[in-house]
Amino acid sequence: MSNIFKSSQIRIINTPSIKHPQGDELQVNIKDKLAEAEKIADDIISKAKNEAEEIILNARRDSEKVLEETHSQAKSIYDAARDEGFNQGYEKGYIEGKEISDAMIEEANEIKKNYLKERELALSSIENDVIYMVISLCENIINQKLENDKEAILPIILKGINSLNVKENLIIKVSKEDYDIVEMSKQRLLAMANLIEDIEIRIDSTLSRGDCIIEGSKGNVDSSVNLQIEEMRKVLITLLNSE
């Protein structure tokens, strides 16, 4: 079984909020939404684990009951056949009884083996479903946030600028949907990114809402939301496959 259920908390990348120089904070709640997604995911995992354990417990009880009844029945047949064989003075009855009892015990062991196999398959299926549900949930919440809060792109850009740690002019590429708000907020971004002399905002038709690529003389940085979601997806799928 993988390590998914061994760690009930799924960590998601935090995005910082931006503070206006005059003190008013941009209402960026991606972090809160992700925390909400994390809580919902934990509830889903907890419920799935409880349901899986109930299925396993019932299957175990059924398996043990069948095994117990089979052993008891096999012993009765074996004893009866042995007594019959001894009473009649024939070894044949003893041998036949032993063969029947051995066959029934083997059948019971096969039932137990199948139960264990089905248990692993059930847990694996539940984990797989939960992981992809969490990924989809996070994507929907983030995309909804980006759609409703036009300024949600700003802290993403600021995070990318700060990661470059340079003092120069920068080119910031964003989607068509984010261009207007970023262009309008250019002076605010410059005020919060103290080392940067100037920034040029450009539209990149290959980018989606929430994506941004920052280009400087010493290198580029992609701080796109979709990239962070993809990195989260890879981490979760890696955990799922690490059995």
UniProtKB/TrEMBL annotation:
Residues 34-69 form a coiled coil. This is Flagellar assembly protein FliH. It comes from Proteiniborus ethanoligenes. One of its GO terms (cellular component) is cytosol. Keywords: Bacterial flagellum biogenesis, Bacterial flagellum protein export, Cell projection, Cilium, Coiled coil, Flagellum, Protein transport, Transport. One of its GO terms (biological process) is bacterial-type flagellum organization. Belongs to the FliH family. Needed for flagellar regrowth and assembly. Residues 105-231 form the Flagellar assembly protein FliH/Type III secretion system HrpE domain. PANTHER family: FLAGELLAR ASSEMBLY PROTEIN FLIH (PTHR34982:SF1), YOP PROTEINS TRANSLOCATION PROTEIN L (PTHR34982).
